[in-house]
Structures are given as structure tokens and as C-alpha cells.
Amino acid sequence: MAQQRVVENIENDYLICSICLGRYSSPRLLPCGHTFCQQCLSDYIQQTVLSPNARNFKCPIDRGLVTGPGSSIHTREWASSFPVDQFALNLLSIVNEQERGGQPGSNAQTNQGLHPLVSNSNPNFQHCNVHTGRLMEYYCFGCNTVLCAQCAIDNHRTRRCDCVAYEEAVSRLQPKANSLHVRFQNLIFRVQQLVQYGSPEHNSLQQSKSRAMESLDEIESNINRFLQVCFQNAEELKQKITLAGHELPSETRQLVALFDRIQDTKLTFDNLLSTNSTQDILNSYRRIESQAEEYDRALAAISQRNPRHIEMSDHPTFSRFLSNPPSLATLRVKLPNRTEDITPRTQPDTDGNLGFISAPLSSAAPRFAAPGNRRVSTSTVSRPRRITQNNHAQSRSKSKSVISVKNPQEDTTTWHLNGIVFIGYYVLVLDSYNNLLRKCSIAGTFTTHETLPLEGATSITLMDNPTEVAVTQPEKKQVVIISTDSELAIKETFKTNKAYDVICLHQRTNFVTCSYRGSKCIDIINRVGRVQISVERSRILRDPRFLTVTRDGMIVVSDNELRRVICMSPEGQVQWTHTPNAAPWGVASDKMGTIYVCLDNNDVQAISDEGHMIDEKFLSARDGIKMPYAICVRSRQLAITEFGTSLFTPNSPWVHIVSV
């Protein structure tokens, strides 16, 4: 039983192909150190390498680029060009022999895959150089040398010498030789393990790096929440300034009443003068004069009061914080014999001391409560983080808030929010059902959202100018450039040859566009609508709905009908595919290499830009989102629209703002 368990452990750890999940068949070794069956590797290469001019492919395990044998060799022959994994082949031979129970007549050493020192019959003895004609058929263990019988009698009779016949020497050395053979195999195996997985010290360094990056992510999340609170406070102050003086003060009401009385008295006096009755004038003059004096005194009393005005002064503590911000954290790199402090230092403070924060990296910045009536729900959990294979944490702190795109005066009950981008502390939301582009504040109290009529708009993307966006109008076959500086306004328009439904900025100079009407295609167009690269992929793309561009310029497309997310190069070579457990909608990529995918089961997944899963339920129904639809991301802040609860008609005006 113990022997069977050893065989099973060896098979599970070293002899299973990661593609077919079976025992290796003709194992082939890639330069990255991973091994696969030759046929499995050949099938994988033919499925993923679609361009005839391709020169490399990605390893199925670590997604690293592997150079092929050359464009002159067909992809179905690439797998056979890689070397045979001799180590795996030897293990296979040992395991197979153990499972067969060994061949009849074979000794124990042969069953273990080891070789005897000599043949069992007719050893080829050498002749002694000292004693002519004598065979060297003895061995001295003390001197570690082969000798003849006369040499043993003449020169090897000391205490340390132990001379024995050839057969006995072989039987005594055989176990030691076998042990040395196994030792070399173990050394080779350990070296291969170090090359493939790294040393414990290296793994510890990677884990400490991951923890440090998680702490910085948490600090950045708190900074985002802090900025959101600051924007909210500034928006509330602006609102108060705008509304100041709208209510009529008592001084103004008194002035209006005084003005009416003066007008009445003046009218009475003018009528009196128009009668030319000297007696009436003399009788009323003194009374009218006293009324004028009363008006003078009332007007003087009002004028002497302090005028109404607004004074605003910044908070001293906040001003000092802005003028001399502290460093975020300390960072110490522990080397074998010393500790190197590489903490960023700020300007000296008022006491002449350098501004350090000596707290460890695990302590994040303080959490800020959101003032005012607006609710910001924050769920921050401090607990040991689990490091995944992809060097990301499964658990992240998040703060969430919700805004509505509906204005108070609107009576509409249906919205289709199929595009969204961040602009400062606003989001621009494309409402294709009501043919409107909506500018909504995310920083503070509610104000009326600015809108711009746009007929038939379907997608929106940021430009390289942070105050401009581009919007597609497929029915008109055009792209509209909109400025957001002071108010929403159309800046320019250019025509396209195709009706593009989706658009995304690519490498700051071009656009990636997608059409899901008629011929399914991915096009890269310039700023005047001319096609630079066209990828016709009707068999790969069936219903492309949203796309994004990664930090490396790769194009990520969500296909709702095929229920998968596809990453391809600008030339159309598929890099990887991700098949979630539901149909995907919106996709967005940040500068940290994370891609967020909205699913129609109320989940939002996070995957890496290499196709690895980071968090299967980054957001879910418990976060209050009903079928996430369009999504955008900046730094560590996301904005997500809802499709709503209806199965057929979008009906949700809500936008979720998530800081992570």
C-alpha cells in the first residue's frame, strides 16, 4: 500500500498534463519549464495561433510568450520541435515498471530504475601494472583502489586497509551507488523546482511585495474616499453660495414697503399741486413735509446697517495639510546584513523635523466619514489577505454610493444607460433611450444634471484631452467629439464608412471601433474616420457588445451570445479567452492591469490582463446592483450603470460609484 501511495503521489505531482489532465504521453518541455503531452500541445497551438505569420504563442500555464520554430514550419509541427522531457520520461518509466510489479528475474536495483555496478557474469578484469600476469580482482576499501592479490599482500596490510574480493566489493558498494544515484536525481529535481517555482526566500519576497501593494491599494482607496468627501464638501459650499440671498431678507421687504409709501405720498402731493388750490396746499404742506422727514429717517436707518455679504476662509489645518502633505508610509527593504530605508521624505515642518510617517505599511490612512445628507456606505475589513496565484488579493475594501440620472422635472420612466465615462468629479452617462448625454455630479449634494440631445448615440469614450469625449452615432455613420469645459457642446463631427456601435480610445491617437450589425468586425480608425486596421472575425465574434483597451494596447471584447471575453492584438491574433458563468456585458480596463467584466447574473468579475481570474465576485447582488451593464474605471474608482429588473426593456436610472 505504501508503495502504491508513493506511485500515486509521483503521478499527481509530476506526471499529469495540465491540458488533458491525464498522464503524460510523449512529454515535451517548453523553454519556460512547463511540460505537456505532444498531441495536447499541438492541438493547443493550432487553436490559439490563427495568423499564418505568427512566430510565437502563449504558454497555457503562465501565459508567457514562447517562440516557435519558425514561420516556415506549419503550426501542427511546432510541438514536435520542442525537446523531450527526459526527467518526466524517466519517472514515467519507473512508475510504469512499479505498476507492472517488475520483470521476472530482475533485481531490486533494476526495479527502482537504477543500474548495477557491473554485469552479473564475466567481469573484464584489468592486469596489474606492477605484477605482470596478475589480474586486479581485489579492492581495498581503506585506500579506495583496485589491486591484485600480490599488491594486497605486499602493500595493503595496515589497519586502515580492508581488502576484499571483487564480488564482495560489488555487493558492499551497490547500495551506496544506488543511494548516490538517487541523490543526484533529487538534486536535479530540486534545481528544476527552483527554476520553475523559485526559492522559499524568493516566494517570501513576492508575498511581502504583494502585502505591500495591498496596503498601498488600501491607502489609495482611502485617498479616493477622502477626495470624494472633499468634492462633496466643495459642492455643498457651492450650492450654499448659489442659494444665498434667494429668500427675501427683512431689509429688502422694508425697502419695498418704504418705496410704496413714498410713491403714494408723492402721488398725493403731485395731485395737490395740479389743483392750483393755494388753500389746500397750505393746509397739507406741513403734513406732507413731516412724512418726507419720516421717510428720510427710515432710509438713513436702513442705510446705516451692515450690508449683507458672504465670507469664506479655508480651514488652517486643511491648508497646512495641502501645503505640506506627509509621506504615505515607510518602506524598508530587509537585506541579509542591513535594512535599507527608502521612505519618501517631505519638506521639513515648522519644528525643523523631517516629515515621516513611521507607521508600518499595514496601517492605512484614516477613514473619512462623509458629511451631509448623502450616504456613502463603506465596508472596510482588516484581516489577513489570501495571496492568489495571480499576485492579487481576493478581498478589497470598497466604498459605494449611488446617484440617479433623473432630473426632478422629468416624467420619464425608462432609461437605457449604455455608456459612461469619468470627467473630473462628474460622470457623463449616455442615455440612448431618451437620446440624451447626461452630466451628473458624483461629489456632493444633488444639482440639476446638465444634458445634451444626441440622436441615436450608442457608445462613449474619453479622448486624450481630458475635457473631451467621442460618441458614436451608427445610424448616421459618424462620430461626434464633445467638449465638456464649461458646458456640454459638440466640437466637431467626422463621418465613417461603417456603422460603428462601440468605440474606445486606442494608444491616444486612434479609436478601436466595433460593429455588431451585419458583418462582425473590429476596426482601428484614425481621427478622420479612415480605417487603419480591420479584423474581420465572423467566426470568433458573434455578438460583440462592449470593448476596452488594456495598458499594453490589447483589445478586449465581450461577446454576449458566445458568453465569453476575448483578448486580441490589434492585428487580430487571439491572446486568450475567458468564459464566465454568465453572459458578459460591459468591460473596462485600468492602468494596474485589472479588467472588470459585468455579467447578466448581477455579478462583476475582476480578471488580469493576462486572462487570470482575480475575483469571481468582485461585486454581486448583495452590493445592490441589478444587472450591471456599462462600466468605466479610473485609478481605483469604478462607475457602473444598471440595465434594471425588466428582462426586455432597460428601466434603471441608477449609477453605482465604487472606490476600491
Automatic annotation (TrEMBL):
Residues 367-407 are annotated as: Disordered. One of its GO terms (cellular component) is nucleoplasm. GO terms for molecular function: ubiquitin protein ligase activity; zinc ion binding. Residues 123-158 form the B box-type domain. Residues 17-63 form the RING-type domain. It comes from the Eukaryota. Keywords: Metal-binding, Phosphoprotein, Zinc, Zinc-finger. It holds the Pfam family zf-RING_UBOX. This is Tripartite motif-containing protein 3. It comes from Magallana gigas (Pacific oyster).
